[in-house]
């Protein structure tokens, strides 16, 4: 093949003919990246004026120096989760080995569609998902597949639940004479509505269930909602409990919800995309009590297990149900009785080997490392909660159950209808003057400051900066209202 128009390092020559050119390009990229990442604590969590890269496709190959300059600008203009003051979202600096795992997975470029196209990684994904399912207590027949994010994992789980409850795997919903509905708390992740829409049920098929003062689903309200749905001629088929709500990090009462699901013979799904990591903390794992009774679980190690994006999974207590209710065979792929073609069992066909960076992270950190990260998160969470509670001008959204503390400024000198604007100004001030980024979600009709104590390089110094910023801002703002 004529490759005269290609740069020397355009591909890695399998004979090693261009190894020097490839090594030079690789080293320059890695050296530049490390220079940026090892100085990340000196940059703001969010860039002030990120560079826009040109989307034009050049006629000829650009010089490496130009590309490296653009790469440097891209990193400088990116969200900077490695900054100690980045405590606003469920994003964090990834483990080093997961970054390297992504590099290796990209280099070998195996396709997780089939065993034939990814012999090592397909088997590893089957075995590792079985291992994690065992951690949740899902039983000896459990298994699952990796997905690109929790949204796809929830979609996958609800698709299997729908197919298991109604005879629609091949014929579709046309033959279903009642409207299928599922139930989730009013603060559950919006991916459930998206899944219901994609599954042909409609977003309104997700019936919102009332929560208590700490954003946890009310089991009595759930039981009433299921009964009302049946009496109105609808067809309940699934209950979704959340272990780690997005805004406040709270955990639904899983045992009580399990009981309601059993009483009404409903599929029990637990969205543990965030909170599922608690299974690796001996001190905190009891917060997941009841998850062992789930029919399916969403878990997202790219969050609290520090794996580089993307890495999530849909787990099933009975892997045979996954195969029977979801599998679409690919006749162009050779089968294997021992290891299934995972592309036939997943929403995605072509899939990258995300399992490698997950496996590497577990191997490199070990249980002790994961447990320490989780427990340290709780230590910092307690410090934030205590500092909020000591200030009369602040209020908590809920009692923290994970490493998320959601609070807002509610000083008596600020009119209620102006408090959202006050908290927005406070958030911007914390970022611009203290290099502390907290997010500003809308919760129960108001704006709140949300801290996620996930960053392994966040310490008490960052918390000092956070509350110094809060106190200083409120003192200055008070003078605007009180003369």
From TrEMBL:
GO BP annotations, alphabetical order: amino acid metabolic process; carboxylic acid metabolic process
Listed InterPro entries: Aromatic_deC, PyrdxlP-dep_de-COase, PyrdxlP-dep_Trfase, PyrdxlP-dep_Trfase_major, PyrdxlP-dep_Trfase_small
Record bears the keyword Lyase: yes
Cofactor(s) listed in the protein's UniProt record: pyridoxal 5'-phosphate
GO MF, any single term: carboxy-lyase activity
Keyword list, A-Z: Decarboxylase, Lyase, Pyridoxal phosphate
Ligase as UniProt keyword: no
Modified residues (N6-(pyridoxal phosphate)lysine): 303
Name of a matching Pfam family: Pyridoxal_deC
This protein's GO CC annotations: cytoplasm
SUPFAM superfamilies xref list: PLP-dependent transferases (SSF53383)
Family as reported in the entry's similarity comment: Belongs to the group II decarboxylase family.
Protein name per the record: Glutamate or tyrosine decarboxylase
């Amino acid at each position: 093949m004529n490759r005269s128009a290609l740069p020397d390092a355009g591909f890695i020559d399998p004979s090693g003919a261009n190894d020097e050119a490839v090594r030079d390009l690789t080293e320059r990229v890695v050296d530049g990246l490390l220079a940026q990442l090892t100085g990340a604590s000196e940059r703001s969590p969010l860039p002030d004026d990120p560079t826009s890269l040109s989307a034009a496709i050049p006629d000829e190959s650009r010089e490496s120096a130009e590309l490296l300059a653009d790469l440097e600008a891209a990193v400088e203009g990116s969200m900077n989760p490695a900054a100690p003051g980045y405590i606003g979202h469920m994003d964090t600096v990834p483990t080093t080995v997961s970054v390297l795992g992504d590099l290796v997975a990209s280099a070998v470029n195996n396709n997780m569609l089939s065993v034939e196209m990814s012999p090592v990684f397909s088997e590893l994904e089957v075995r590792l998902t079985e291992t994690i399912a065992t951690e949740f207590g899902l039983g000896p027949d459990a298994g699952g597949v990796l997905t690109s994010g929790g949204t796809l994992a929830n979609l996958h789980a609800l698709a299997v639940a729908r197919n298991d409850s109604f005879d629609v795997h091949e014929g579709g919903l046309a033959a279903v004479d009642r409207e299928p509905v599922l139930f989730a708390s009013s603060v559950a992740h919006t991916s459930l509505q998206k899944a219901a829409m994609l599954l042909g049920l409609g977003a309104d098929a997700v019936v919102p269930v009332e929560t208590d003062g700490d954003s946890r689903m009310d089991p009595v309200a759930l039981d009433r909602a299921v009964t009302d749905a049946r009496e109105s001629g609808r067809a309940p088929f699934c209950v979704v409990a959340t272990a780690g709500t997005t805004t406040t990090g709270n955990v639904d009462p899983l045992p009580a919800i399990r009981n309601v699901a059993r009483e009404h013979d409903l599929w029990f799904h637990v969205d543990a995309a965030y909170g599922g990591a608690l299974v690796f903390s001996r001190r905190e794992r009891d917060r997941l009590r009841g998850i062992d009774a789930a029919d399916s679980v969403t878990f997202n190690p790219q969050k609290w297990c520090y794996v580089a994006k993307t890495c999530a999974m849909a787990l099933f207590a009975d892997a045979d149900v996954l195969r029977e209710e979801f599998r679409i065979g690919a006749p162009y792929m050779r089968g294997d009785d021992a290891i299934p073609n995972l592309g036939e069992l997943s929403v995605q066909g072509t899939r990258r080997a995300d399992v490698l960076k997950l496996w590497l992270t577990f191997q490199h950190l070990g249980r002790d490392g994961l447990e320490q990260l989780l427990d340290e998160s709780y230590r910092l969470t307690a410090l934030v909660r205590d500092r909020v509670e000591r200030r009369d001008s602040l209020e908590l959204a809920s009692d923290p159950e994970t490493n998320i503390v959601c609070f807002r400024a509610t000083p008596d000198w600020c009119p209620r209808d102006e408090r959202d604007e006050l908290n927005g100004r406070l958030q911007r001030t914390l970022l611009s003057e203290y290099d502390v980024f907290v997010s500003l979600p809308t919760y129960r009709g108001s704006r709140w400051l949300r801290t996620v104590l996930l960053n392994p390089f966040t310490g008490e110094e960052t918390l000092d900066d956070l509350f110094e910023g809060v106190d200083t801002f409120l003192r200055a703002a008070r003078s605007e209202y009180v003369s």
